[in-house]
Amino acid sequence: MEKGKTQKKVKKLPRYTDERGREYFFDNAKFILMLFVVIAHAVSPMQDSHDTAKAIWIVLNTFHMACFVFISGFFAKSYIQKDHSVKTQRLFTYIMYYIFAQVFMTIFEIYVLGYKVDIGFLWPQPALWYLMCMILWHIILPYTVKVKIPVAIVCAFVIGLLVGYDTKVGGLLSLCRAITHFPIFLCGFYFKKEWLFKFRNKWTQLLSVLVFIGALAFVFFNHRFIASRVLECAYNYKKSNLVIFTDLPLQWVNRLLFYIAAVVLCAAFLTLVPRTKMFFTRFGTRTLQVYIIHRFLYFCEEEFGWYKLPFFESFGVYKMILIAVIVTFVLSLKPFEYPFIWIAKIKLNPLLKPEHQTK
Questions:
Q1: At what angle do helices 252-272 and 51-76 cross, to 10 degrees?
Q2: Is residue 73 part of a domain?
Q3: Following DSSP, what letter does each residue of 12-71 receive, concatenated?
């Protein structure tokens, strides 16, 4: 009887991983972040005529890609070998993704949208800066990990602040974005998930909800003071249309404020992400396909003015958000994953001489 009573008192613990040990938390986070990316792009053309769209766009662009970069940095540690070198197959796969996507997006712009664009691989399409950055970060990471952690992170942030003064840096190899986001990538690389879960409780989650409500309210009433180009991290300070701290010696403060806001919102977001399996968890493994494919729809929305249709005259922003949610789920389906699976199967080893083959 005593044994039975003891067994009744035992509570079934929630399951946080699948059979392979893959954590649901990160797949949940990646899918929700990708949903935010699609929503931000969907409402982007409506910013000038809707304060709500402007507020949503600013808040989402402050943290969604920064958080993606942070998570990418966290997983990058699995691609660093004991001798501090990168597993070249993973780097090669990123390069293949980038090349195929760059080619198809260029063809789409020329023959569907009728744009006159320069053809090349050193100037990534706007949607592909993230892939280019992943390539660059994985190249320099083996050298960065040899530097003491505090020194590496502080230097990365300082360089991220100073690069805004360089009027030459820009779209070439997405260097501006690569340098600006690298400290966030590096923080993710050295981050331990136990740090987050240790402070995760109902009170920190309530605080996180209040942080997002406060951010949306603040931006809604003060968006005219926020330079959107600072959030995009693709421009130097001279081209960022700064509204505050416009004097040359203080321009770096604009990016510092971006860093602070991004860190706060990223922390709030990660505190709220569910740890258990959700109905959308499996889609967290397919965010890359959504990231690339949805841009074709975004280009069409801008070029053909879909957001100006009569359908969007009333509650247009909310209808566009609903469409963005539907698009995200549809593009997360298995059939859209097949081209990416095929690209990932292209192996580097057969292309190398035997003495240069690597894992």
A1: 80
A2: yes
A3: PPPP-B-TT--BHHHHHHHHHHHHHHHHHHHHGGGTTT-HHHHHHHHHHHHHHHHHHHHH
**Residue 211: what pLDDT?**
97
Q: How many domains does the chain have?
A: 1
- The C-alpha atoms of residue 283 and residue 83 are separated, in whole angstroms, by 34
| CA atoms within 13 Å, Cβ hemisphere of 344 | 9
Q: 161 lies in a domain?
A: yes
Q: Worst-scoring range by mean pLDDT, 38-47, 83-92, 321-330?
A: 83-92
pLDDT digit string (tens) for 119-153? 789 999 888 999 999 999 999 999 999 999 999 99
Query: 9 lies in a domain?
Result: no
- Tell me which residue of 337, 303, 297, 336 sits closest to 320, measured CA to CA: 297
CA distance 346 to 351: 10
Give bridge partners of residue 80 from the DSSP assignment. 86
Name residue 161's amino acid: L
